[in-house]
Every structure is written in structure tokens, then in C-alpha cells.
Q: What sequence folds into this?
């Protein structure tokens, strides 16, 4: 269960696993490749789009092949 501190009353709010599942499935419905990050102590939820792959230069390809050994 994720917890979040309510600033007005000082009470801790608990999120149920069902609430978190609904949040994640809603984010996945909007963007299946999105990155969903949940920080439990702060109650922070981040939904980030998948990063766009950067085209490799010939040097990057050469360096990757050398590092693969």
C-alpha cells in the first residue's frame, strides 16, 4: 500500500492496491509503452512517455561492437 501525508490534517492516506492497479492500467491504456513510476512515501506518481531512440552514428555502432566483446 502506498502512503501519502495529508498536509491539512496530518493523517496518512493509504492507497489501496486496487487504486494503484486502476492508475497503472489507465496509464497503459493511454500509452502502452509509457513508464509508470510510483514513489510510495511521497505518493508521487510519474507517467512518462517512452524516450525516442537516438539514431546511432557510425562511431557509436563501432564502439558498441567493440564493447560487446
A:
Amino acid at each position: 500500500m502506498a502512503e501519502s501525508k495529508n498536509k491539512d490534517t496530518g493523517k496518512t492516506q493509504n492507497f489501496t492496491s486496487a487504486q494503484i492497479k486502476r492508475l497503472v492500467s489507465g496509464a497503459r491504456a493511454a500509452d502502452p509503452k509509457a513508464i509508470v513510476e510510483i514513489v510510495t512515501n511521497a505518493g508521487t506518481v510519474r507517467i512518462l512517455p517512452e524516450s525516442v531512440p537516438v539514431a546511432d552514428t557510425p562511431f557509436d555502432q563501432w564502439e558498441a561492437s567493440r564493447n560487446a566483446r
Remarks:
- The first strand starts at residue 2 and ends at 5.
- Residues 20 and 36 are 11 Å apart (CA to CA).
- The chain has a mean pLDDT of 78.
- The chain has one domain: 2-67.
